[in-house]
Amino acid sequence: MQDAGSILSELNDRSREVFRRVVEGYLESGDPVGSRTLTRSMTEKVSAATVRNVMQDLEYMGLLGSPHVSAGRIPTQMGLRLFVDGLLEVAPVTDEDREALDATRGTNEHDVTGLLDRVGAALSSITRGASVVLAPKREAAIRHIEFVSLSSDRALVVLVFADGNVENRVFTPPPGQTPSSLREAANFLSAIAQGHTLSELRGRMRSEIARRRQEIDLLARDLVESGFATWENEGEPHERLIVRGQSNLLSPPAAADELDRIRSLFDDLERKRDIAEFLELTEEGAGVRIFIGSENKLFSLTGSSLVVSPYMNAERRVIGAVGVIGPTRLNYGRIVPIVDYTAQLVGRLLNERG
């Protein structure tokens, strides 16, 4: 797909002005903009027929659409994207909006949750949209873990921390996982999670995996050295011990017991590898904490826009984000700098709190 700069370079001055005025008119009123309306505001004096021809060209390019026959035009999603990326003029944050956001500081220096609640409320009030606050990911002791399957390629992990805070993160589970395997992983992790952080749990799972792998190596060594079995993809996540037919020559009880034990250890190893991968994906997953706003936690709203900006810690590492969800006809020129200022404010306040 072409970027905004290359598409705009294909437009002459008249086409660019028609496009800009259609988008601005739509964002202001929410209604389609007609050619007669544009002729009264164009820089150069042109006829309505000329403007209609330009609008038809812009529609052919996919930048404008016509909701009804012989009606005016509105920007398409592609057109809005082009406008925001290439033509948007942002206004400075007003003193009134700045004061409303600065007032979220509060008095409790350690009440991070309260701060984020106040920021969300202020942002929603100022923008008249649904505010979204993605809280910093926590590295605190965990009390309980639960996985919820949302779709075939989407899952939610619910982390209940020892201090009572709850955090939800969305992630993409490894291929082939089922709701039952997610439940099994959650039950196992909840049983060993008490007092441990996510990083500590990952370390514990790595130790468990190494221990199981060592047990398998000890049991399988004699079989491999005797030529009765061979490794396939040794050391890889999908390794297998292939037992040859001549293993039937082993004394039946000993062979059966040893192979059953190896199978059991392999099953356990595979489960722990899956759980370790869940933990890794959980740590990487997007922290989703909605204080005020839409019921749709995945932000997949049709006909809606999300303006979001990350905030950083003192080391300039992204630790969360703030944003506003609203209709596609948001006042982007006003909303964008407000969200940007809010993100900088949150990062600064959180750094002050350590």
Automatic annotation (TrEMBL):
NCBIfam families: hrcA (TIGR00331). It comes from the Bacteria. HAMAP family: HrcA. The lineage of its organism: Bacteria, Pseudomonadati, Pseudomonadota, Alphaproteobacteria, Rhodobacterales. Keywords: Repressor, Stress response, Transcription, Transcription regulation. Belongs to the HrcA family. Signal peptide: none annotated. One of its GO terms (biological process) is negative regulation of DNA-templated transcription. Negative regulator of class I heat shock genes (grpE-dnaK-dnaJ and groELS operons). Prevents heat-shock induction of these operons. Residues 115-336 form the Heat-inducible transcription repressor HrcA C-terminal domain. Gene3D superfamilies: 3.30.450.40, Heat-inducible transcription repressor hrca homolog, domain 3 (3.30.390.60), Winged helix-like DNA-binding domain superfamily/Winged helix DNA-binding domain (1.10.10.10). GO terms for molecular function: DNA binding. Pfam families: HrcA. InterPro entries: GAF-like_dom_sf, HrcA, HrcA_C, WH-like_DNA-bd_sf, WH_DNA-bd_sf, WHTH_transcript_rep_HrcA_IDD. This is Heat-inducible transcription repressor HrcA.
